[in-house]
Amino acid sequence: MTETNLLIKNATYLDVVEGAYRKGDIKVNDGIISEIGENLANDGAVEELDAKGRFVLPGLIDCHVHVTAATADLGQLGEWSPNYVALNTAKIMGAMLERGFTTVRDAAGADFGLHDAQAEGLLRGPRLFFGGKALSQTGGHGDPRARGRHSHDGDYCVPHIGTIADGVDAVRLAVRDELRKGAHHIKIMAGGGVASPTDRIDSTQYSISEIEAAVEEAEAANRYVTAHAYTGRAINRALRAGVRGIEHGNLLDDESLELFKERNAFLTMTLVTYWALEREGRDFGLSQENWEKVAAVLDGGYEALGRAHEAGINLTYGTDLLGGMHRYQAKEFAIRGKVIPAIEVIRSATVTAAALLQREGELGVIAPGAAGDFIITKEDPLNDLEILAESRLDFVIQQGDIVSSTSTGR
Ligand SMILES: [Zn+2]
Q1: How far is the CA of 317 from the centre of ligand 1 (A)?
Q2: How far is CA 315 from CA 260, 311, 386, in A?
Q3: Residue 325 CA, ligand 1 centroid: distance in Å
Q4: Interval 194-237: pLDDT, tens
Q5: Cα of 269 to ligand 1 centre, how many Å?
Q6: Rounded to an integer, what distance in angstroms lies between the CA atom of residue 293 and that of residue 306?
Q7: CA of 321 to the centre of ligand 1 (A)
Q8: What is the arithmetic mean of pLDDT over 233-255?
Q9: Looking at the structure, do residues 282 and 210 belong to the same domain, yes or no?
């Protein structure tokens, strides 16, 4: 990646921690914000951008994406050529960048190859945090087999988003193997899901000792475990076993709220995926029964978001969209904005997300020492989250590079 030096003049920029706008010029050197101040000099070979009258926010962070999920039929994905999946992924990641997401955390499927390709500039897209394949027990949310199928091809090169590991020793081995490949975090399936072929949404998955083993191995490498879980029962046992993050969490209960607080854990809700399924799921072949399940999970999600916000829990932005529904990635801003204040929604996609990624001060803020990642808008997103939800962005800047201008969103 070229090391552009950029000077943004006359910025009205959002201090997301304080929730207030500040004014000044912002200088980016070698991809990092080097200075913020009044009337900064353009000392030489510096690209200059006048942001007068515009609003400058940190680049957005989505903490739950599946960049390889080019189809909503995840069972099918494993039958695809890895090369074909990678080329689809390039298109998906490029579109994410257009929507202002300069960083994403992949919640299962992405690997070190995609990470390295993005970092080296081969692949245009958000900075990528990945966990490799999600760990699932047999018959769990990450088991793609239909009931009549017995063999499971766990080969690394098969582009399934999950891998099956049963028993403490196998879980340890699977975690160590993902860490060996460079995983930033470990994802486990700790409860049932909506679209998986054989499990029930109200089931818990993995024994406590298996979850504890995953946590122990991840923490040994200074990494963390995040768990897919919907119900209070599944969430609470995972948090007690030491996981640091919960994905979805739509059906959390009072005890969950206490455990999140006590353990300073992170909740990454993904409401837009149910919103999209409710809207378009029938077109994608969702049965009436599953469609009704989706509606119930969405209603529970709105309520859970409000309660989690009131309880002061670390909320992070997630989307979890698959296949043709990726285009709704920014819609989560509008959905959350119906329940919680705009600044809290923006924090979930910036400063709080950076804390989850263990990159506090480096991502999700506009301050010296942070990455030169920004979105620039004409109107104030704090007044109207639709500006973000509709990707009405004048500029997207990543590490000081203007990677998109007058984006219309897709
Ligand atoms: Zn997911």
Answers
A1: 12
A2: 10, 11, 20
A3: 13
A4: 777 778 888 999 999 999 999 999 999 999 999 999 999 999 99
A5: 10
A6: 21
A7: 8
A8: 97
A9: yes
CB 330 within 8 A of CB 391: yes
Prediction pTM value = 0.95
Sign, CA torsion 267/354/115/186 = negative
Tell me the residues surrounding ligand 1 (ion) with CB < 5 Å: 107, 320
152 C-alpha to ligand 1 centroid (Å): 21
Count of the separate structural domains present in the chain: 2
pLDDT confidence band for 333 (50 / 70 / 90): very high
Q: Where are the alpha helices (DSSP H) in 112-231?
A: 112-119, 168-180, 208-220
Q: At 326, which amino acid appears?
A: H
CA–CA dist 322, 326 (Å, integer)? 6
Q: What are phi and psi of 366, to 5 degrees?
A: -105, 100
Report the range of poorest mean pLDDT among 120-134, 264-278, 287-301: 287-301
290 alpha carbon – ligand 1 mean position (Å): 17
* Backbone angles phi and psi of 179, in degrees to 5: -65, -40
In the chain, the percentage of residues whose pLDDT exceeds 90 is 80
Domain encompassing residue 211: 60-356
* DSSP label at residue 281: T
Sign of CA dihedral 5, 53, 394, 23: positive
CATH number at residue 28: 2.30.40.10
CA of 162 to the centre of ligand 1 (A): 11
- In this structure, what token pair is assigned to residue 15? 């201090």
Token pair for 173: 């081995």
Q: How many CB atoms lie within 10 A of CB 355?
A: 17
Confidence at residue 253, expressed as pLDDT on a 0 to 100 scale: 97
Cα of 244 vs centre of ligand 1, distance in Å, is 16
Q: How far is the CA of 2 from the centre of ligand 1 (A)?
A: 33
Give the pLDDT of residue 78: 87
Q: Is residue 1 part of a domain?
A: no
CA–centroid distance, 108 to ligand 1, in Å, is 7
Same-domain check for residues 90 and 119: yes
